[in-house]
Design a protein that fits this description.
alpha/beta, Alpha-Beta Plaits, 5-stranded parallel sheet, 11 helices
């Protein structure tokens, strides 16, 4: 299995780090270079962790575990209005980034009101493109419980963050974290930072359970192995959007339109097979701004081969 770790250190001798990553069969997921400070998020085989740790120490850097790296998580508020998009949403998104995830903040078009709140099928489809979703609701117990309907049809793991402790949410949420709610200030106090750490730990637990399920029937190819193949495609290499390729637990988001590049995606050769044979590829529901690749499991590919052989 692959693990994702983060290097923090200087630029000096960083080429040795890149060479070591390539030698062990790893891949660079993201790199940030500011002055003489370098941060590299990488995916490497677990058995080669000590090799990378040794190189990191030799060149004067540090290696950190980032349990949420290789995931993309949505943080959803009822609307984008300031009444429903309070500061805690930004703090939650930030703590997820510190743990390695790509976090995206969004609001529903018609989420306001205890009796009038709703979520459209398109919004559900967009949320289902992520690895997990955090719903941030408010300070009134009856209102939070009434808005249970917003989360009922979502397929990805749901974590609910709100003020009071609601009842009857166990069948729609993997976890419920109370004690946050709406507030017009950043979460800076020690007890508030502890609550953010609780949220992060809960998300890590939920994601770990999803990873364990995937390990029971592994993917045909790990997303981190597919990423370097995609990076060689010029439109992706020239893409100016932040993080043109985002890793998911079971695939990738590639930030170029599928319709315009369908022939490339469908016919990309991976271990002697076309990508369309080992993955489900479709356009993002977000105005075809991206391509969503869901890699099939080993058993799904075997079943597919068996049907063809009949």
């Amino acid at each position: 299995m692959f693990e994702v770790v983060k290097y923090d250190g200087g630029v000096y001798r960083s080429n040795e780090l890149y060479e070591a990553i390539e030698d062990v069969g790893g891949t660079v997921i993201n790199r940030m270079h500011s002055a003489q400070v370098l941060t590299v998020t990488m995916s490497i085989p677990e058995e080669d962790h000590e090799v990378i740790a040794k190189i990191t120490k030799e060149i004067g850097g540090q290696l950190f575990n980032v349990p949420l790296a290789g995931t993309e998580i949505a943080v959803v508020g009822c609307t984008l209005g300031r009444h429903h998009m309070p500061h805690p949403i930004c703090d939650i998104a930030e703590i997820l980034r510190e743990e390695g995830s790509i976090s995206v903040v969004m609001g529903l078009a018609r989420g306001r009101g205890k009796k009038t709140s709703q979520i459209s099928l398109r919004e559900i489809s967009i949320i289902d493109e992520y690895d997990a979703v955090i719903f941030m609701l408010g300070n009134f117990k009856a209102c939070v419980e009434e808005k249970k309907a917003l989360m009922e049809k979502i397929s990805v793991p749901v974590i609910l963050v709100c003020g009071p402790e609601p009842e009857g949410m166990e069948d729609v949420c993997e976890a419920v974290i109370s004690g946050v709610g709406r507030k017009a200030a950043r979460m800076k106090a020690p007890e508030e930072r502890a609550k953010l750490n609780e949220i992060a730990d809960t998300v890590v637990k939920v994601i770990s359970e999803k990873k364990a399920m995937l390990e029971e029937d592994p993917l045909f190819i790990h997303p981190a192995e597919l990423k370097p193949l995609l990076e060689s495609y010029e439109p992706i290499d020239m893409c100016l959007r932040p993080a043109p390729i985002v890793l998911h637990l079971d695939g990738l988001r590639v930030k170029i339109p599928y319709r315009e590049h369908k022939e490339y995606f469908d016919n990309l050769m991976v271990y002697g097979r076309r990508l369309s044979e080992i993955a489900d590829i479709r356009e993002s529901k977000m105005e075809d701004s991206s391509t969503i690749i869901r890699i099939k499991t080993m058993s799904a590919v075997r079943d597919q081969d068996a049907k063809k052989a009949e």
